[in-house]
Amino acid sequence: MELQQLRYFKCVAETGRINAAAKALYISPPALSASIARLEKDLGCTLFDRSNNAVTLNRNGEIFRKYVDQVFSALDAAETELAQAAEAERKHICVAVTTSNLWIGLICAFSLEYPQITLSYTTMKLSQLGRNLSPKYHFLMAEENDFDGSALASEVLFDDDRPVLMVHPEHPLANEPSIDLSAHAEENFILPTADLSLHKMAAELLDAAGISKKNLYEYTYMVRRSAVMRRQGVSFSTLYTSRNEDPNLRYIPIEKPTCRWTQRIYWDKSRTLSPEEQLFRQFAVDYFRNNA
Q1: pTM, 2 dp
Q2: Mean pLDDT of the chain
């Protein structure tokens, strides 16, 4: 008895037709019928009741299918466990984020402290977020209003971030200690790319300030930075994010409308974190606690 025979049996049992199963398995119907016949000969009993092109599991077939399903379930579990073991051996951590520039300092600091652990991160759009974290990511770092994270375990990294206006150093607002956004409706506002966390915050600020969003531009960070440097408008960032952005620009705190960002680190509560993952989680918490 071979594993291939079990795969063929399982497919025929699921489809109920030799022709359909043969097409799914990329073999000829006669070859599939011969394989099933050899399996029945090896077992010493028939597994199917046959009528025209249809085949139906008989009592023997139902009994055999139960154990075949267990075989493949065990193989799937073994494959998953081996993949997890290989992943742990590689000591690699994958992180998803919703605001890319915000985490540059943390990523660099961790990589310098623990060079034996490779770290990668991907910026995710809000529409890509679901209640559960994709298995390819160990952590998600996001603002707590970006999505419904109630199904995940999480910990606050910081809850005192504030929005700032990004302006040219010679802009009339460049030396202001803070601003009321509603008093500057005449500005050309350049928003972050749509479907990103920072875009959501900027759009909500403009709405709260009563500023129409007509004729607004939406650009990536590099294009926004270039446009601000060319005095084509002003854009948005946050106090924490601006630490990792262009030091030649000016970042003016927006006092009104009020807005505070709470950033959390999320992970799958059903999965036991590896030692490296526990290390990263604690490092992230301590990093912002010590660099607030």
Answers
A1: 0.66
A2: 90
